[in-house]
Design brief:
mainly alpha; 2 strands; about 0% strand; LuxR family transcriptional regulator
């Protein structure tokens, strides 16, 4: 594993790897120094423009020093596309995923542990880090809402209702990684593929009929965003209950549930799919309370006395038993 060297910059989380190409390293440092007013949200200072002006020339110069077979491991290089152009086309999140996927393929099939290969790996890892943190870059005096990252993720490739890529983003990712071959992104295909929804959640089926999965997801969108926020908050601070639901028992459920998970805030697709499964499984807050009280050792009768039914009366033991038996296995608390 290559060592990493932290550089002081306006993007403090950007890491320049130790063996990174010197010209790319200088470009990243220059980018960081100029980046303060730039962001993905600014019209006056769009961060893609800064990537085009500062990073593109360095990447082009570096690629000219490499053999031709290295081009297939850099998004768009084989098609003579600039780094900023591919990033604009794919979106920041997908660009990072594509680059990491190609790097894994390079390590398995091409890496011979030479100094050139080490430099190549370190250079692309440094660029991937830069693109990843551009996704969260706020302008110096930003007043963006707290959930702006979630909205940005949706614009950059996630289905509005889950963690799958939109149909168009999925197609572009396949195209940029070279599988399948001999496919061109025509205007007809762009028109047919949804840029907001995945195949599962597209509004209309190929037959022209309305998709019931779309209707269900549309009705539950508000609850989906609520569960996604809770999951993301708890991931960010695992040591204490941090779901911020407004109810101690619900917060305790998310705390207990995440103890058995390995998800981190960067696992955006997985968190979105988990939130979708939680909503589709009808895991209500009342059921979450039942699970955590059961975890704490309360009997079904005692749980019923602590919780209220829809008629605002204590729940019966039978009602609690029926509700618990309907909960899907993935959401049960261990122990």
């Amino acid at each position: 594993m290559e060592n990493k060297v932290k550089k002081k910059s306006a993007l403090p989380n950007v890491t320049i790897w130790e063996s990174c190409d010197a010209s790319i390293s200088i470009a990243i440092e220059e980018f960081s120094e100029q980046s303060a007013p730039y962001s993905t949200f600014s019209r006056r200072y769009p961060i893609l423009r800064l990537i085009k002006e500062v990073i593109d020339p360095a990447v082009v110069a570096y690629m000219k020093t490499l053999p031709g077979d290295y081009m297939g491991f850099v998004p768009g290089a084989g098609r003579e596309m600039r780094y900023s152009e591919v990033t604009r086309l794919l979106g920041f999140d997908i660009m990072v995923r594509v680059q990491r996927q190609l790097l894994r393929h390079f390590l398995k099939t091409r890496d011979k542990h030479t100094s050139r290969d080490k430099c190549f790996i370190a250079t692309l890892e440094s660029l991937a880090d830069l693109i990843f943190f551009c996704m969260y870059k706020q302008p110096k005096n930003s007043t963006a809402a707290a959930d702006i990252n979630l909205n940005t993720q949706r614009r950059q490739g996630f289905c509005e209702f889950c963690g799958n890529l939109t149909e168009l983003s999925s197609f572009i990712e396949t195209l940029m990684t070279g599988k399948p071959n001999n496919i061109e992104l025509t205007e007809e295909i762009k028109f047919e593929l949804s840029h907001k929804y995945c195949t599962e959640h597209r509004p209309q089926l190929m037959s022209g009929e309305w998709n019931p999965a779309y209707k269900q997801a549309k009705r539950s969108l508000t609850q989906f965003n609520v569960e996604l926020r809770r999951l993301s908050l708890q991931c960010a601070l695992r040591a204490i209950p941090n779901a911020q639901s407004g109810d101690q028992l619900v917060d305790a459920y998310f705390f207990q549930y995440m103890l058995s998970q390995t998800l981190s805030p960067s696992d955006k697709a997985e968190l979105r799919n988990l939130a979708r499964l939680m909503v589709d499984s009808k895991l209500s807050d009342n059921k979450k309370k039942m699970l955590v009280l059961q975890k704490f050792g309360f009997s079904q009768y005692e749980i019923g006395q602590k919780l209220l039914s829809r008629k605002q009366l204590p729940m019966t033991r039978q009602a609690v038993s029926k509700a618990l038996s309907a909960i899907r296995k993935p959401f049960l608390l261990s122990g």
